[in-house]
Amino acid sequence: MKRKTLKNIVEYDGIGLHKGEIIKMKLIPAKSGGIVFRMLNMPEDKNEILLDYRNTFDLTRGTNLKNEHGAMVFTVEHFLSALYVAGITDLIVELNGNELPICDGSAIKFLDLFQESGIAELDGDVEEIIVKEPVFLSKGDKHIIALPYPDGYKLTYAIRFEHTFLKSQLAEFEITEEDYRKEIAPARTFGFDYEVEYLKQIILP
Fold it and tell me: What angle do CA 88, 105, 56 make, to 5 degrees?
C-alpha cells in the first residue's frame, strides 16, 4: 500500500472543545515525515509534535500528544481515525491553539475536508503492522486485545458505565471506508458534567 497525502492545502476554523476558543487549522500536503502537528502558539524551533505513541500523555477522555519542549495538542482522536480510514500517512497540521476543532463532535467533517482537497499517492510504501499472535494491554479498568485476523480489520468494543442512561454497550465493525463513513464517523463525542472541571484544568492556557 502506498503512502498518501492531500492534493491541496485545506483550511478550517472551528471551536475547540475544552476552551471554547476559535481554532484555525491548516492541513498542508507533505511528501514524507509522517503526521506532524505544528503548533503556531510555540517558538518555531520547538513547535512540532510527531504523531508517535511515545508522545502520548494523559489519556483521560481523549488522545493528547506533546513534545520534549512543552508543545501540546489535545483531542486528536477523531482526526486521527479519519486519517487512518482515508489512508493519509504524511501531513502537516498547523494549529493556532493547543487542540483541534471539535466540529460537530464527530469525525465526519474531517473526512469531508479530505474529500474537498483530494488525496495524492506518494512513492513510498506503508510499512504495515501485521498481528501474528495475541497482544494484550491493560491500564486500570481499560483493556485492549489485538488478535490475528486475516480477513481485514475488525473492531469489537465493549463499554460499561454506572449510569442510568448508558450502562453496558457492545459494538462490532468491519473497518472499511464505506462502513466507517456510515457507522462510525457521524458518532459524536460525549462527556459527563462531573468531568468538566478536571478537563478544563489539564488544558493549558
Answer: 55
DSSP 183: I
Q: 41-47: long-range contacts (C-beta < 8 A, 24 or more apart)?
A: 41/95, 41/96, 41/97, 41/98, 42/69, 42/70, 42/71, 46/70, 46/71, 47/71
Contact 71, 49 (CB under 8 A): yes
| Predicted structure pTM score | 0.88
pLDDT tens for each residue of 59-76: 777 899 999 999 999 999
Q: pLDDT tens digit string along 172-198?
A: 999 999 999 999 999 988 777 766 666
152 phi-psi bin (left φ>0, alpha ψ -120 to 50, beta other): left
CB atoms within 10 A of CB 149: 10
Write out pLDDT tens, residues 95-104: 999 999 999 9
Is residue 16 within 8 A of residue 102, CB to CB? The reply is yes
Given the C-alpha cell 503556531, which residue does it identify?
40
Cα(60)–Cα(58) distance, integer angstroms: 6
- The rounded Cα 84 to chain-centroid distance in angstroms is 9
- What CA–CA distance (Å, rounded) separates 7 from 144? 35
d(CA 159, CA 91): 32
